[in-house]
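To: structure subgroup
Subject: Chain for Friday's discussion

All,

I'm putting the inputs and outputs inline so they're searchable in the archive.
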Amino acid sequence: MRVLALSAAVCLFLGCSDSGCSGMEPIPDGFPLDRRVENGVQARLTPDGVDFLEATLAEIVGSLTGGTLLFPIPPSSQDVGAGLSADICPDGGCFISIEILTVNLVPTPPNQLRIHMNVIAFAADESGNVAQLPIIIHDWLFDHDCGANIDTRLAGSPELPVTGTIVFVVDTETGYTSIDFMELDATSGFENDDIDIDGGIICEIVDLLKGLFIDQLTGALNDQLVGAMEGFTCMSCMEPGDCPPEATCDAEGGEEGICRVGEECVPSLLGLERRMELAVITPLLNGRLDLLVAAGGYADAAEGGLSLGIYGGAEATEPAVCVPHDVPPPPLGPVPQSPTIYAASECAGCTPREAHLVLGVSETFLNRFGYGLHQSGGLCLSLGGGALPISSGTLGLIMPCLLYTSPSPRDQRPNLV
């Protein structure tokens, strides 16, 4: 049973075939806190895993974004001195494009990951191409159309240092782990000559005065980058029903918003919390299963790596008619923090042998998952009479993820224990 449960869990949580991961929706009111297995899964990013991320993060981000990160710059106004004021990007559609060059990650006790990146940054259009940032300068009588070329490659060093700290915070009420960004500084490395304002005499005067307001301009850019980070760490929404009952949704004009309680955003769950149609496993099944695999319990940055506890859970929305209803569920635990996660550092068959990511799945969670799968009807499969030839295609009908193979060459994949 545990082998079958592990196979099904891998299929559901780590990815299926192109069409095998649909049929999931949010769980109304979330997964019950008292039905979770704390430390049901435990994970450790090893020191070699940190090195692997440092070496490949720029490439990974580039493959996901087409080469650069685009951050929107909303319209804003600035006082530039000498009786002049400026409207920056008054009609919208302005962006800062960032290309990551190098990454340095430092796990720092007790629960932090310090980041130092060198990037190239420049003003861009929505396609990521170099573009001027429109600026309207107001004097005592007239308005003047100017353009700002913002590009770290214009003068001095082309590299812009970006620093910050990721803090893994365990909520004292729910136990879930969330990410918080601290001390994010993405613009203090801008030099005066990285910004060139042109378009006429007044624009040239403003260019001469830019040293007086460059801190305001780059500070506004930094605020936008910090705000963009919320999209990665905060729960997104389109309407209030997408947020917890105590939160509101700040979405406007059909644009995606963020769930907030007062001024604070609601942290995103680091993992999966979904109600799944069992047809995801095979079209031969009916029924639904509530699933949970989400970071929580503990977060430790120690010995050059990062370790996370992960809550696990699996509950049938209602017992299937094909199973007995008087079977008691297996116990929830507790599952202690595993010292083996720290000790496992070699990956048999890997080149190099050092593991990058160590995962441990507890027997308690596998038992709960198997029980939930059974109670939901996930094992009620009738295949009729006659011989059934067993092949990868046959197994693929039952679990499409068994047919999945990674397209990456072996030596470019992370080592997993």
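Points worth raising on Friday:
The first strand starts at residue 24 and ends at 25.
The radius of gyration is 26 Å.

D.
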